[in-house]
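Hey, can you fold this one?
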Amino acid sequence: MNLAITLLVTVAIASVVGTVLQQNQPYQDYIIKFGPFWHEVFKSLGLYDVYAAGWFLVILTFLVISTSVCIYRNAPNMVREMRQFRTRVQAVSLRNMHQVQEWHADAPVDTLEPRYRAWLKQRGYKTRSADHDDHRLIAAKKGSWNRLGYIFTHSAIVVICIGGLVDGQLPIRVKEMIGQIQPETRDIPASQVPEISWLPESNPSFRGNVTIPEGGRAGVAFLQLRDGYLVQPLPFTIELKDFRIEHYVTGQPKSFESDLVIHDPEREQPVEATIAVNHPLIYEGYAIYQASFDDGGSGLSLQAWPLDHPELETQQVEAAVFESLEVETSAGRQTLEFESFRPFNVNPAPEDPEREFRNFGPSFTYRLRSAQGEAREYENYMLPVALEGRKFFLSGVRDNPNQPFFYLHIPADPAGSPRRFLAFNALLRDQDRVREIAAETVGETFSELRLQEPGMVEEVTATMGRLVRMFARGGFDGIVEQVEATVPEDRRMQVMDAYMKVLRNILSALYAEILRAEGVDISAGINERDSRFYEDALNAVTALPMYGSPFFLQLESFDHVQASGLQITRSPGKSVVYLGFTLLMIGVFMMFYVRQRRVWVWLQPQLDQTQVIMAGSGERDRRDFEREFTQLHQGIRRAGETD
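Sure. Predicted structure:
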């Protein structure tokens, strides 16, 4: 009993873990969530697939065997006890019971017996009398079905465990152990998966997932198995006609549903149905659940703006989510891996007192992977976002998926484009043009001061160019590092102030060149709006070294394709488990609410009277039975005294 309770508690705890911890996810997701150390601990315990873990199946098997043996050994005795009235009880045994009354009645035994039995039957007792040599015994009982509660409860444990074993992927585990199947770890289409990673269509139970884009079809499901997967063919094909999703004002999904068409070669006409969360389609023993949603390979039309080149020559990029493109950059050949697309992003709007949340528009994410395999993840918004009264194009970057995004804020020009900033950034890297503008600026300054120092003009011009190059490579932080590395500590502040004044002058001149190229009239000076843009542009240039990309991808247009994530299960053990829980509820009800009670009435003639001994026993709640026994005693005495 102690071992059985321990094992049941273990199964209960494991079931809680299997409910709280999402099962059968890629190992990389668990590493990100728990870290390498705890990932290995949980992996060794089999917590990522609890219901198919070896130790879990062994416990279920042991419970089935041990509980079945318990039922086999004890159920016949319980059934016999339920049917027995125990008519061979001695008077001394009756007198030793907790509830006992003894008296003498004036009527004979033949008169008392039918009256007593009638009274007991009236109170719900089944009775049986037995004649002995010197006395007659009436045995009565009710609630004997209480014993069935124990049988049903133990049988329920067996049935539930059998259902768990049926749906516990035991055949898959056995086939894997003997080498008949092997999980596939590569991210390849199902058509390229080798035969050893395919399961038979007759597989009795499984739980797999498949993502289908709108207008697409699928005839397989993928079963996650540790760090790989298996392909489960289906006897039919699922087509996704349409996918719909509704959101709360916070941007969280409110509801989503899919219009499916089942193409079954056994049917002349396809079956159409709509599924939603908690409203699956049950078809020929297969349950199709609405589990998630994803992008279905949306088409993206992009413009690539260079960030490390003096020429502002853009390139048009046509791609789709889940595609990869090889690109040539200043850092060598790299790979663009497009991961996802979102048509809208609802985020908190703390600057808008009228709205708590605001739609920031479409965004897409991609990875830029170097030839060495190192990758950075980027998240770019399509539309400029208003922040503090100004608009910026946001582009987030991070080195690790468990890190938050660091956002580059590219200021939007009056036309709502990043062109002005990118033209300014390109000009900073055009050394010839920077030298020309620096020479013009120095010449005008020296002319106003009426200085004739050609050597000094060359020196200041060269200094300006050098500072612009340092600023373009590392921002203001790059200049600070250069000063700290080359200037004695006692002169750093003085040199830094001089550098910043010179740099500000040349940067202002470069920015004025950009404005003149746009046709902006700056004869009366730069207005406040353009001045604020200039400060934002300097901040963005300073952040570019941390951005780490040789280009900025701007989303121009898109063709949104949605995909529905379906979970497909085949679980014949589910009905067995339901039967087990039904037996368990019936058994628990009978154990707690059906009380077995027995009453004996001993009738022995003595001269002209009858000696009566009445005794009773009841399971649990002795006070309640004591009250009932008192009422029975009083009623029987009255029945015996009735003429």
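The chain has a mean pLDDT of 87. Let me know if you want another pass with a different chain boundary.
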